Amino acid sequence: MKLATVAHGGRTTAAVLDGDHWRALPADDLSVLLTTTEPDRIAALAGSELPGATPVLPLPSPRKVVCCGLNYADHITEMGRDLPAHPTLFAKYADTLTGPEDDLLLPPGLDVDWEAELAVVVGAELRNADRDTADRAIAGYTVANDISVRDWQKRTLQWFQGKAWDRTTPLGPVVVTPDELDPVAGVEVICRVNGVERQRGNTSTLVFDAAELLAYVSTFTVLRPGDIVLTGTPGGVGSGMNPPVHLADSDLVETEVPGIGTLRNRFRLTDSALTDLHRTDSRS
After folding, report:
1. Cβ(80)–Cβ(43) under 8 Å?
2. How far does Cα 19 stand from its chain's mean position?
3. Percent of the chain whose pLDDT exceeds 90
4. What is the DSSP secondary structure assignment for residue 282, as one 8-state letter?
5. Model-level pTM greater than 0.90?
6. Are 222 and 126 within 8 A, CB to CB?
7. What are the E-state strand segments in the chain?
8. How many CA atoms lie within 13 A of 254 on its CB side?
9. Element (H, E) at 218
10. How many Cβ atoms sit within 10 Å of the Cβ of residue 260?
11. Dihedral (CA of 24, 30, 36, 39) sign
12. Staple partner for 47: which of 24, 42, 179, 284, CB 3.0–4.6 Å?
């Protein structure tokens, strides 16, 4: 089952894909729907068709966005690190999220990098869960890119200031339920910049898989329906190249997970990154 938040008729609504058509679900977005409805009951709520509907940011208001760094062996190697004994975690705010085709707006003079990722959507409350319980609590999977401002990231040992710039983490275009996607068996995570493939990894090589990450995080903080956990990026980031490569104005970043879909985000330089009126904002 493929779920989304779609724009239709000047508003947004949660929706489920029925063949080639979106059908409305009784909520303004998936974040709201997942807090009130168990994932396996959602399809039964499908209503009228939504012709011309377009997927936007699927989960605009998660309580928590937790990210795992250094989770693919090849990326760990290119960053000059040792394999971790425990997940390397950091957090983002909901304000960092943006839609599957929104522009990425940042001011000039920054070292901006790409990080294609598989993201996990939580579907049930988790507290101190074991792996099996965490696995059953996964509502679905979506695509993310943890766009990173490397020069700010490297200012201190804490990564937060390089990872939490407003509206720079594209997410979507849909959420695919676990019956249709099995990251343990392996799905590819791909990033292209201006049509050139920069990253291609497989989730079968994750050091910590999705259920392990959810269980680990739930040990110290509750996870609730609609929360998001990013699982890390494979090798091929720009800062790992020699010499390093960073995004330039008008670069197109495409992030793909087969079986889910592709994000297409244009990087734009602007002196007013947080207020630029030309940005296509999926939240409006």
Report:
1. no
2. 24
3. 86
4. T
5. yes
6. yes
7. 2-8, 11-18, 21-24, 54-55, 65-69, 88-92, 97-98, 104-106, 112-113, 116-122, 138-145, 148-149, 169-176, 188-193, 196-202, 228-230, 252-257, 261-269
8. 12
9. helix 210-218
10. 24
11. positive
12. 24
Residue written as token pair 């507290």: 127
Question: Which residue carries 């997970």 as its tokens?
Answer: 257
Bond from prior residue into 243 cis (ω within 30 degrees of 0): yes
Between CA 104 and CA 134 the distance in angstroms is 33
Per DSSP, the chain holds a count of helices (H) and strands (E) of 6, 18
CATH superfamily to which 59-269 belongs: Fumarylacetoacetase-like, C-terminal domain (3.90.850.10)
Cα(190)–Cα(201) distance, integer angstroms: 7
* Closest to 45 in 3D by CA, of 83, 84, 1, 7: 1
Tokens 């997940």 locate to 87
Q: Are 23 and 14 in contact (CB under 8 A)?
A: no
Residue pLDDT, tens place only, 11-47: 999 999 999 999 999 999 998 898 878 877 898 999 9
Distance CA 145, CA 138 (A): 20
Give the residue from 259, 280, 257, 258 showing the smallest Cα distance to 268: 280
What single-letter DSSP state applies at residue 179? G
In the chain, residues under CATH classification 3.90.850.10 are 59-269
Sign of the CA dihedral 108, 109, 110, 114?
positive
211: closest CA among 183, 235, 188, 181?
183
Phi/psi at 199 (5° precision): -135, 140
C-alpha 158/C-alpha 156 separation (Å) is 5
Taking alpha carbons only, the member of 169, 124, 125, 118 closest to residue 141 is 118
Indicate the residue type of 158.
Q
- pLDDT tens digits along 100-111: 999 999 999 999
